[in-house]
Design goal:
With about 210 residues, the chain is mainly alpha-helical. It is built from nine helices and three strands; from the N terminus they run H-H-E-E-E-H-H-H-H-H-H-H. Strands 1-3-2 form a three-stranded mixed sheet. The protein is globular, with a radius of gyration of 18 Å.
Length: about 210
């Protein structure tokens, strides 16, 4: 419980610091950055969320990232991206997850996997973010070997990237996505070796496809 409280305090601290930076750089009031506070305060347990609405808030989304799962919402850079994601319903009328047809639907699937991961973390957003932070800190020690290792070697991201194109993946984990536990059991170095191996295999398959074209 103490760890969860620490995560909550860290989130409030980050909101406060980024708000001051935003106001200083842009000569704006501090109201805009604090728009995420209602999202935090009104957040529901992951198990009670069937679909996550996308909202635009480029202030909180780091450059180079397309979207971010935040307490039951998907944050995007632009209103157009948010609208594209919101047009993708979580289920078809027959109750099955629709097959991803484009980059936006694969991205939505990626973020929905994060939702189910949070459900597997004691059905708690704070516990999910606490673990996410721990894994990120483990990974950044390998930034010299792999750029952005804290993100790419995070077990939560490794599971989400591995299955984001699998339209049926979420159907197999209604009680929470737990594939990240396999990667969490590895050391950071083992995750790096696994990641490099997967990328090498993808490159080989790509070369074969192009050679046969």
């Amino acid at each position: 419980m103490q760890q969860v409280f620490i995560v909550f305090l860290l989130l409030l601290y980050v909101v406060f610091v980024k708000s001051i930076i935003f106001a200083a750089r842009n000569n704006h009031t501090m109201n805009h950055p604090f728009r995420i506070l209602p999202i935090i305060m009104k957040a529901r347990r992951p198990s009670r969320i069937t679909d996550m609405p996308a909202v635009r808030d480029a202030f909180w989304l780091k450059k180079g990232y397309t979207a971010m799962t935040f307490f039951g919402h998907i944050i995007t850079h632009s209103a157009e991206e948010a609208n594209q994601l919101n047009m993708l319903s979580g289920k078809e009328p027959n109750g099955k997850t629709p097959k991803p047809l484009n980059a936006f639907s694969a991205l939505k699937n990626h973020e929905m996997i994060h939702l189910r991961q949070a459900q597997a973390c004691g059905d708690s957003w704070l516990r999910f973010y606490w673990r996410y932070l721990r894994y990120w800190l483990q990974g950044i020690r390998l930034n010299r070997q792999l750029r952005n290792a804290g993100y790419l070697l995070n077990p939560f991201e490794m599971e989400a990237y591995e299955h984001m194109d699998d339209a049926q993946y979420l159907d197999h984990c209604p009680d929470g996505a737990t594939g990240w536990k396999h990667y969490a059991a590895m050391s950071a170095t083992q995750r790096l070796e696994h990641y490099i191996g997967k990328q090498t295999l993808k490159n080989i398959e790509y070369d074969k496809e192009n050679a046969g074209a």
